[in-house]
Amino acid sequence: MTHSDKTTLTPLRISRDNCHINGLRELYESAFPPEEQIPYDELVALTDYDEFEYVAWLHDENLVGMTIVLRLPEVNWFWYFAVVEACRGKGYGQQILTTIKSIYSVTVPLILDMESPAQASPNHEQRLRRRAFYLRNGFRDTDTLKSYDGVDYTIMITGDGTFIQADYDRLIQQLRHYWNGLRD
Questions:
Q1: Residues forming beta bridges with residue 147, ordered by sequence position
Q2: Does pTM surpass 0.85?
Q3: Which stretches within the chain are classed as H helix?
């Protein structure tokens, strides 16, 4: 697939009932470092809440990517995004991101956090490419950073709004509310 192809990707919302799509769990577990993952069963359990939209992206019934967005009244958090390794560089990521933006950044900003390219790391080139991809696609830096488990993250946003550390802290509190609800 090239950028000029109009291949239609089919979004499939994931729930407890269909979370075993071939390759989906493997994509999640291979695309993100262990310190960035929550246990897969808990991730799937979060789909019980309407605000969590876990989507498998299919082309001809084959998995090409996955996304997770947490929808909130003031912001939508583009929490996870991965493309199957064999499908990278073929325009699928671009198509998924374009669709995500058209759905989730219409009325409120869409934000994401990514490993900061300002931090020295073994995957520095990957971080630079990822940041460039998001900048090309309408995201911008917020100058809000967070650190977790020795890794620095930068927060990016669509649109004209602002997003500061206090906003991020509120977002994490909301996430904890849902996550703790799983354990009650």
A1: 152
A2: yes
A3: 24-31, 40-45, 92-104, 124-136, 165-183
Could you read off the pLDDT of 20-44 as tens digits, one per residue?
999 999 999 999 888 889 999 999 9
Beta strand pairing call for 76-83 and 110-115: parallel
Structural domains present in the chain: 10-183 (3.40.630.30)
- Eight-state DSSP code of residue 74: S
Total residues belonging to the chain: 184
d(CA 81, CA 92): 12
| pLDDT, tens digit (0-9, with 9 covering 90-100), for 59-77 | 999 999 999 999 999 999 9
Grouping H, G, I as helix, E, B as strand and the rest as coil, residue 49 is coil
Q: What is the CA radius of gyration of the chain?
A: 16
Q: Are 9 and 91 in contact (CB under 8 A)?
A: no
